[in-house]
Amino acid sequence: MEVNRFKDNPIITPDDVSPYHESHEVIGVFNAGIAEYKGETLMLLRVAERPLSQNNNIVKAPIIDFSNNENTLKLIELDRKNPAYDFSDPRTVRLRQKEETAFLTSLSYIRLARSKDGQNFTVDEQPFLYPEAELEAWGIEDPRVTQIEDTYYIQYSAVSEKGVGVGLISTKDFNSYERHGLILHPENKDVAIFPEQINGKYYALHRPVPKGIGRPEIWIAESDNLLHWGNHKHLLGLREGSWDSGRIGGGAVPFKTDKGWLEIYHAADTEDRYCLGAVLLDLDNPAKVLAKTDKPILEPKADYEVNGFFDQVVFTCGVTLQDDRIRIYYGVADTSMALAEISLKELLAELTYEKVPESGGI
Ligand code: MAN
Description:
- Helix content is 3%, strand content 50%.
- It is mainly beta.
- The chain has a single domain (4-50, 100-133, 153-165, 185-352), classed as Glycosyl hydrolase domain, family 43 (Tachylectin-2, Chain A).
- The strands form 7 sheets. Strands 19, 20, 21, 22 and 23 form a 5-stranded antiparallel β-sheet that branches. The chain has a 4-stranded antiparallel β-sheet with strand order 1-26-25-24.
- The site of alpha-D-mannopyranose (MAN) has 8 residues, from strand 12.
């Protein structure tokens, strides 16, 4: 089973968005969180801007400098000929010896895009969320938006030299907002908070990245207040030799069906080719996996999914549901936004119930 791609894909590209920073170019408008607000579909777009460099041998790494109680954009100049650095991944500059990321090549923040029909979007001129704290000095990325009653909770990757953690911001009107700080410390990303309490608890998917023992896989945690998370359980793991053999993480905010909570997630193989799959979780106990798709429901095939800033990526942070129609909004090749649709009934019928091991945990 495969989704139906929207005929006018991609729906937003870097050409549609002018840079906020002087002497920068927009290289990506992707991995947008989705909210439905006052009859409109809102995209919380991750906009990635890269400093222009007049000299091909110089890479400029952007960071926000919070020293002196100011936040100013600072560009770190790095020489491509310097053997200490590895420039082979376009997203990062890595320190060869320590095998760690020294800088990102772009700075991400969030801009709003608005649409009446969920297909044609107009992008705001100004950022909506911009780094305001030291733990976001390298950018704000990949937001998910969970509506709980009249409040929208935005969960995002807060990136800095200290690592990638998960920040939380809430808003009622997509104008003013409240910052709640880091809810999960590095390294963790791909948080998706469930839209209602289950037996008196909030739940969230998250994706720690163990460096010693263990792998980047999907976990689930509980909370009484959305800020402090505990009772962590391992939810879904990698499968060797398959499309989900490299890393796996929560995608869209899960939604309720009469069969269970449905989650559209991403997984990459060991070659960093990202696909989307679906998993069904127990309505009363979302730490229990009921079924999942054996094969991807969406894999990079269209030209705009295969070729871009980082090739072969489809990555979702949000879906909408109208009757039987799931609309999947997804980032393509770390460059643009695309849209695809799938029937809820057909997707549920496609899930495999057997062969799924009971989830672990302590
Ligand atoms: C990875 C990629 C990048 C992202 C960094 C930090 O390298 O997902 O797009 O900027 O992680 O989150």
